């Protein structure tokens, strides 16, 4: 059984078909990339998995269980974490607080004991902090612990967002364009981290990415989408050489050009 | 500048960052305790009034500053707390020690009930909905005359705890200390909320609802909880206000009070406990400051004390405009800047707080 199964999912916004009968499945322990031109429906698929949108047909199963019966805030508890294309951090909070929000899924204290700050809450806080420190060490965020997000440069925010998703301790990590807007060096770091997330932490990664260099260096399988439909599935190389994918990106020579050629 | 070397996670969990900070607050507490001996009875009463406003301000701050939900209806919950407290004492004969926390609980439950339908709204629409609640409460108090005394109002009994009487006029010092104890408890609860998952879930809802959901935060429940805690604290302030005023009716908690509360925390500085206190100092002491300066000016130019209607509101409005234009982070924001200036002297730069923006996310339209 696959970890995540997207089964014949369709989503329409009015007359626009954003995702059209898309099916694919992500196996446990792999890095699976979604590629495609803008408007292909990649981020929409992420939003479908995190239950921001309801599909009109089809089913999304995680670990054999349908996610459609869950609400958006119950997805993290299932073991799915995500990042956002346009960073959605908690701006007026510190890096540490942001990462600790990621631990919300593991909260065992109720609000009454928290208002009284019982010894149990304190011991829980220490435990959450210890887990968050592991993420901080992994992503080299030590200099930024007490910095407010509002004052941080873009590259660091991107990393903090990945850290916050890791603090959830997910089984499946959804990365929405983890390298967009990053420098070559930063992108290199992201590639190493994704490798480590897969190998050391054993977390399955589903990512949307435009940087084909990054995609081909880290992903086991790639799915190409265009206009909400699947074009090709295979290794990065296979997908890049697929005529339908080339057509979607570059377009096909029209009659006139063929005649000239 | 101080560098704190942290040797355990507790350093970030504890109430104070370091011993010196704790010592300063201990000095402040000591000063607060002996204050009635230093001031006249009248001045003690004014400080008590300020503390009550600060409690109400902290209540609203949890909602607006921490959770980012605007409310123009908090006077309604002052009223709920006030009437519940007095009615529980008068009608059911409960002692103050029971009626007071129950009044807070009732105001909190009322807040949760209001939150369930209204927190689906954002920004200005939420403000309008809560405004309507404030107006409705005024009418409900008049309509429920058999219970509330309508426009005639109710008298608050003298507080009696184990035979010791707390009356604003007969023994203002005791009333002050009682208010101080409540203030300290509210501060402690507020701080506990901020340093636990609860406070972080509030901040998450304030800054990004979509990613709060992705982190597993139940946004609707968190908002309702923030409303409940906020209105419970405001209800406690209302109960104290009733005892402080002695007599109250529907006019005591009108819409102006709601607006004043919101302006108070904006002037004080959104998102901090300090802000509630700075704002309360301005709101509670401004009328007296105006009266004193009016007499002084009148004495100088020989006109005596002439009452100028609306002067108070005008000055209050002017202060608000000045703050929104020049210091959106309020008095507390200015205080932090001044403190940083001296801590880093002579290395303070003007641009240091440039990236810092207002807490009030509710202004963002959706």
Kindly, what is the distance between the CA atoms of the first and last residues of chain B, rounded to a whole number of angstroms?
A: 42 Å
Query: How many strand elements of chain A?
Result: 10
Q: Tell me the quaternary state.
A: heterodimer
Helical run tally of chain A = 11
User: Which structural class fits the helix and strand makeup of chain B?
Assistant: mainly alpha
Number of strands of chain B: 4
- State the separation between the terminal residues of chain A, measured CA to CA: 49 Å
Instruction: Report the uncertain regions of chain B.
Output: 358-366
Give the proportion of residues in helices of chain B.
55-70%
What is the helix/strand order of chain A? EEEHEEHEHHHHEHEHEEHHH
> Biggest interface and its residues per chain?
A-B, 44 and 35 residues
Q: Mind telling me the C-alpha Rg of chain B? A: 21 Å
Mean of residue pLDDT values of chain B: 87
Characterize the biggest β-sheet of chain B: 2 strands, antiparallel
Approximately how much beta-strand content do the residues of chain A carry? Answer: 15-25%
Strand order of the largest sheet of chain B: 1-4
Strand order of the largest sheet of chain A: 6-7-8-3-9-10
Provide the succession of SSEs of chain B: HHHHHHHEEEHHHHEHHHH
Output the structural class of chain A.
alpha/beta
What coarse outline of chain A follows from CA principal-axis ratios? globular
- What is the average of the pLDDT values of chain A? 91
